[in-house]
Amino acid sequence: MAINQETVTDASRAIAFADDVRALYYQAQAMQEKIERVAAGQAAIAAGTIDARELRFVQLVGILISAEDIARVGALLPLLQTITTTLATDYADFISPGG
């Protein structure tokens, strides 16, 4: 009996729904944390309270990402917050299956 590769592929994709939700949650959470870290660092620079590690992080971001792109990515924060909150609230069973 031949294995129908299309059926195998479709079954894999169907099974992956929960994994995709979990991956989306953790990726959105990671992006949210980075954006918040840059924003907090920029605020600490303005207030004169930044420590050396956070200053280095903000400087590295500024070197690697243009100011325009930092602003564009920062504008995603409300969307990322909505995604992570919704997934944590309504899809916790997908994010942490079995517990």
Rounded average pLDDT? 93
Amino-to-carboxy terminus distance: 40 Å
Count of DSSP strands: 0
The amount of helix comes to over 70%
User: Treating each run of at least 4 consecutive H or I residues as one helix, how many helices?
Assistant: 6
Order of helix and strand elements from N to C terminus: HHHHHH
What class would the helix/strand composition place it in?
A: mainly alpha
Q: Which outline best applies?
A: elongated
Q: Which runs of at least 5 residues are low in confidence (pLDDT < 50)?
A: none
For the sheet with most strands, the description reads: none
What fraction of residues sit in β-strands?
under 5%
Rg is 19 Å
Short description:
The chain contains six helices and no strands. With 99 residues, it is mainly α. It starts with a helix and ends with a helix.
Describe the protein:
The structure is a single chain. This protein is mainly alpha-helical and 99 residues long. The mean pLDDT is 93. It contains 6 helices and no strands. It has helices at 5-15, 17-47, 52-64, 67-74, 77-90, 92-95. The radius of gyration is 19 Å and the shape is elongated. The longest helix is centred in the N-terminal third of the chain and has 31 residues, at 17-47.
How is the secondary structure organized here?
Layout: H1 5-15, H2 17-47, H3 52-64, H4 67-74, H5 77-90, H6 92-95
Helix pairs in contact: 2-3, 2-5
